[in-house]
Design a protein that fits this description.
Blueprint (H helix, E strand, L loop, with lengths): L32 E4 L7 H8 L6 E4 L4 H5 L3 H14 L2 E5 L8 E2 L2 E2 L1 H21 L6 E5 L7 E6 L2 E11 L5 E5 L1 E3 L5 E3 L1 H47 L9 H34 L5 H27 L4 H16 L8 E3 H24 L5 E5 L10 H21 L4 H11 E6 L13 H11 L3 E6 L19 H10 L6 E3 L2 H7 L4 H7 L36 H7 L28
Parallel strand pairs: 1-2, 1-16, 2-3, 3-6, 6-13, 13-14, 14-15, 15-16
Antiparallel strand pairs: 4-5, 7-8, 8-9, 8-12, 10-11
Helix pairs in contact: 1-3, 4-9, 5-6, 5-8, 6-7, 7-8, 9-10, 10-11, 10-12, 12-13
């Protein structure tokens, strides 16, 4: 089969402004396009130097593995910054992939969150070294991979199939699936309904355990009290010795003691449950605030009864049982079960906004108006903040947290708000969101996601795929609606950099993706945004798309044959070299 590079194209196709099967009708000038470095290497000087000949004006340092990132010597950052000054190249940075919320393989912990915060602060300082006089965008992942919701398009409507929740006490993730219930009636439980029932079941189970312990303890104490109540106080105080007590009364005292041990277990469980009630009863909406007020009233009643019960432990454990009966009746009056389990995105939102705000505020205090921009990237659609609405909410809440913390440190609200909007935004990865396609989402839904996130976007990542795997192909080689997404971002004012990520392509093809990128984006050949465009000259200036990475071939065969002169990379129509053909004299192209 003959490849398209060997076919004479004629002279009329290139005059058509939409010529070329890869071109999408949306043009991006080359100065807005950038290339990511190889994420597998810490030798960023070598990476940038090797790729400078490709004409790229922006590089994203992409050593995303925390281990690789930490392996970059501090001198490299300064040398890369100097190299940028010499060549007129700008730099952005992809920070190490850590989880801002604080999740690791073992689950969540505040220790992990603080570690992630420190790692990101260090990455921000490296970003500042790349451009001390500007605002270098640093992309951080919205999550290290915490699963959130698996969606499926059913009858034209998106529906949750699996939703993940977090146990706020243990930090463990729990999958919650759509379930069918048959009693008392046949119905489908959504993950949200199942989550509510899980919280109620856990609360009822804990309360039942308290009741069970109370009943056993009460029976033990009542039976023992009937025989040894008259000597209990003296025995407890140590004024009555065991040899002075009859065997029956001694056995009764042992029963009372075992009953009190049961009450100790009950008391510990009660303290744990009340802490959950106070910590995890929501109070966001007016109705929730009203419920929380009722909850606190009941908690205060229980606290007083518990203190009274503790005083009776040494003197009259028989009456202590009545106090615990009151406590358990009060627990039954609580209007709502505490939200021990919450949706993963809600939990991560509360934790991640603290991390992002702290990192951004630290950068602002150090570098002022030249602080790097914290740009939060959507990862995959089934992870937290993988959809536009969730990611936008994270940006919004992080800005609010930044403002609140800045005000606490004496920064005016107006100044803090301006800094928050400048320094905290989103990196939109057009290919990550395309993975919704494997769940039945159409192209229009992908474009709608870009429309929703557009007001928050500070940076863009480009690559292509087919909606099933994150393959990182050059644009035009998959079915990601790249042009449509970029058009939505531009409508809402985005005019920043667009970085091509191509790790998979580089690994397999061993060639530069830049020719395919400029062709697919319809970029102008020259600095002015006017014809000719790269998509118009495909197959005319060489293979592929005539992208000349270097000085190019001299003395092409047809030119020597027809004109007896040498030019660099003439079009085929004017005597340029036909691929896979030898030179006139030696049979080998001369350079």
């Amino acid at each position: 089969m003959v490849s398209y590079e060997t076919i004479y194209k004629g002279t009329y196709g290139p005059l058509d402004p939409t010529y070329g099967e890869l071109f999408t009708g949306y043009r991006v000038p080359v100065y807005r396009l950038g290339m990511a470095t190889d994420p597998r290497t810490a030798n960023i000087i070598n990476e940038v130097s090797a790729k400078l000949s490709q004409g790229v004006k922006t590089f994203e340092i992409s050593s995303v593995s925390p281990q690789v990132f930490e392996s970059i010597p501090k001198q490299h950052w300064k040398e890369v910054e100097r190299l940028g000054k010499l060549t007129g190249v700008e730099f952005t940075l992809h920070g190490p992939i850590v989880d801002p919320a604080g999740f690791s393989r073992e689950g969540w912990s505040e220790t992990y969150r603080k570690q992630a915060e420190e790692q990101l602060k260090n990455a921000v300082s490296r970003a500042h070294e790349l451009n001390p006089q500007g605002n270098t965008p640093i992309t951080i992942h919205a999550t290290g991979g915490v699963p959130s919701t698996e969606w499926q398009m059913v009858e034209g409507e998106p529906r949750r199939q699996i939703m993940y929740a977090v146990n706020r006490e243990t930090g463990q993730l729990v999958p919650i699936e759509v379930k069918k219930r048959f009693f008392p009636k046949e119905e489908i439980l959504t993950p949200e309904e199942e989550l509510r029932e899980i919280n109620e079941r856990v609360w009822d189970s804990n309360r039942t355990s308290l009741i069970h312990n109370k009943e056993i303890a009460e029976d033990m104490i009542q039976n023992g009290w009937a025989l040894a109540g008259d000597v209990w106080k003296e025995w407890r105080a140590g004024t009555l010795k065991e040899e002075e007590i009859t065997p029956n009364k001694l056995r009764a005292i042992n029963a009372i003691t075992l009953g009190l041990a049961r009450y100790e277990d009950l008391s510990m469980g009660l303290r744990h449950m009340l802490n959950e009630v106070v910590k995890y009863t929501p109070e966001e909406t007016p109705a929730e605030k009203e419920n929380k007020a009722k909850v606190m009233e009941i908690v205060n009643n229980i606290k007083k009864a518990w203190e009274d019960a503790e005083k009776l432990k040494d003197t009259n454990p028989y009456d202590m049982a009545e106090k615990y009966g009151f406590i358990l009746r009060e627990l039954a009056r609580l209007p709502v079960a505490p939200q021990l389990y919450v949706k993963a995105e809600d939990f991560c939102l509360e934790q991640s906004k603290k991390t992002i705000a702290n990192v951004a505020l630290d950068a602002y205090k150090k570098y002022g108006d030249n602080a790097p921009i914290i740009s939060i990237e959507n990862v995959f659609p089934n992870t937290v903040f993988g959809r536009a609405e969730e990611l936008g909410n994270l940006v919004k809440k992080s800005r609010e947290e930044f403002i609140a913390r800045a005000k606490e440190q004496g920064i005016s609200e107006a100044r803090a708000r301006e800094a928050a909007e400048k320094l905290i935004g989103a990196t939109w990865d057009v290919s990550h969101i395309n993975l919704l396609r494997k769940h039945g989402f159409p192209k229009e839904a992908i474009v709608e996601e870009a429309k929703k996130i557009a007001p928050y976007v500070k940076h863009v990542h480009l690559s292509d795929n087919f909606g099933y795997e994150h393959t990182e192909l050059p644009p035009g080689m998959g079915d990601v609606p790249i042009k449509e997404q970029l058009a939505e971002l531009e409508k809402r004012g985005y005019s920043g950099k667009q970085i091509l990520e191509f790790a998979s392509w580089a690994e397999h093809m061993k060639v530069s993706p830049m020719p395919y990128l400029v062709e697919a984006m319809g970029s102008p050949l020259y600095g002015m945004e006017m014809p000719p465009f790269w998509n118009q000259v495909r197959g005319v200036y060489g293979v592929p798309a005539g992208y000349n990475m270097g000085y190019g071939l001299m003395l092409p065969e047809q030119n020597v044959s027809l004109y007896r002169a040498g030019f660099s990379e003439l079009p085929l129509e004017l005597g340029g070299l036909l691929p896979k053909r030898g030179e006139t004299f030696s049979g080998t192209p001369m350079e």
